[in-house]
Amino acid sequence: MTEYPTTELNKVKRGPKRANYEVDTVYSILDDAFLCHIGYVFKGKAIVIPTAYCRKEDKIYIHGSLKNRMMLSLLEAGDASLTVTHLDGLVLARSAFHHSANYRSVTVFGEVRRVDDPIQKMEALACILNHMVPGHWDHVRQPNEKEFNATLVLEISIDTASAKIRAEGVNDELQDYKLPIWAGVVPIKQVAFDAISDKEMLDGVEVPSTVLKYIENNK
After folding, report:
1. How many helices (H) and strands (E) does the chain have?
2. Domains in the chain, CATH or no CATH each
3. Beta strands 160-166 and 19-20: pairing type?
4. CA distance 157 to 32
5. What percent of the chain has pLDDT over 70?
6. DSSP state of 145
């Protein structure tokens, strides 16, 4: 199985036994979410914000306005780092010290490129929307010329990455197992509820099949 080389940049130093450098594992964690957190520097200050994304092969695409300071800062820097995290459970130990969480996370490092080719740019925008709700691009009004020209799309190459995963129970001190204190795991997942149609919806317009399928798959 293909792995990213372990370097000073992507090496997991805290909890290395939970590190995973397999490309397929990294892709799987990225594909199970559509919100990432990106770090950048603006006027000497470090800032981290969430943004929607999609992955296509070994590239990640994000979008924003032409004046978006994060997008412009990333372009100026020429490289980026982003993270994705899934919270899968609360690990409640007998001791406060050993409380933890089960999770799957990925950190990506790569070069940043502006997408100017109109076809590739439109494909990237469709990719981002379809990453939220698969197939939904075909059920919306697509960007007009003004909207399209006002949107900046960036491509971040997945040059290297690392995953970190915890999927286990409580790890208490041996002497604490004799204490009359409850311990265990509370599983957590993100769920979708029934869609709420916009109050200005025209009569006869039904919820698209893509939305209904998304809800069914994420109950």
Report:
1. 5, 10
2. 16-190 (2.30.110.10)
3. antiparallel
4. 18
5. 100
6. H
Residue 114: what pLDDT? Answer: 97
| In contact, 155 and 108? CB cutoff 8 Å | no
User: Token digits for 34?
Assistant: 């559509």
82 Cβ partners below 8 Å, 6+ apart? 36, 37, 38, 39, 53, 60, 107, 108, 156
First-to-final CA distance of the chain? 32
Q: Is the pLDDT of residue 15 over 90?
A: no
Asked if 111 and 158 count as a contact pair (C-beta separation under 8 A), the reply is no
Its sign, for the CA torsion 44, 45, 46, 48, is negative
Amino acid at 80: A
What is the Cα–Cα distance from 187 to 167, expressed in whole angstroms?
10
pLDDT digits (tens, 9 = 90+) for 67-79: 999 999 999 999 9
Taking CA atoms, 28 is separated from 36, 57, 87, 123, 152, in Å, by 14, 12, 15, 21, 26
Cα separation, 21 vs 87, whole angstroms: 19
Query: With bands split at pLDDT 50, 70 and 90, how would you rate the model's confidence at 23?
Result: very high
- According to the model, what pLDDT value does residue 167 have? 95
Burial environment of residue 60 by CB neighbours within 10 A (0 to 12, 13 to 18, 19 or more): buried
